[in-house]
Amino acid sequence: MSNLPPPQQMNFKANNLPEAWRRWEQSFVNYFMAVSLSKRSKAAQVAVLMHCAGPDAIDIKNTFSFTGEGEDKEDNYKTVLKKFRTFCEGKKNTVFERYKFWERKQQPGESFDAWVIDLKNQATICEFGDQHDNMIRDKIVFGTTDQRVKERLLTKSDLTLQTAEDICRAAEISKQQIKSMASTSQTPEVDIVDKKQS
User: How far is 64 from 10, CA to CA, in rounded Å?
Assistant: First the structure.
């Protein structure tokens, strides 16, 4: 596991810095666990963090202040991560992030799962609070392009996010199955016609 490659350097110039940091932090935490960095010294943990984050991270970290009390120390990797998170989220415009969430439409040919995963990722930075799941559920209802599915979703007065996902997935799978059945059911007919002609 020690040969596991580290995550790519963090792009602090990303257009969506909060989201870029969220993804990078998840990658680093996974890497941290996979290579058992918890067994290393605190100073080594922070050094690996800074090495993985890249040269821009060093300049940013130099602007952080540490009290030296409790966990607020420069050699505490969790504290350093938290300060980077605060720095990146400080660049966040919650109103604009919510606008992007509500404008996110399922693209032609895009699977439901790909769409809903993107919605969930966007929702995490929208600060919906305890309405988080309800917002995603509502977006699915408003955003689905299949009118029959939309009607079915609207008939559920107690519709939950999980139920909405299940209904949409089932509808997508059944469409694929019907399409597959239609294409395979035509093959024998073509074979029979070909044999008669021959």
Answer: 17
Please, are residues 38 and 82 in contact by the beta-carbon 8 Å criterion?
no
pLDDT digits (tens, 9 = 90+) for 62-103: 999 999 888 899 999 999 999 999 898 876 788 988 999 999
| Chain Cα centroid distance, residue 190 | 45
Question: What's this model's pTM, rounded to 2 decimal places?
Answer: 0.59
* Biggest alpha carbon–alpha carbon distance for the chain: 90
Q: Which residues contact 158 (CB under 8 A, 6 or more apart)?
A: none
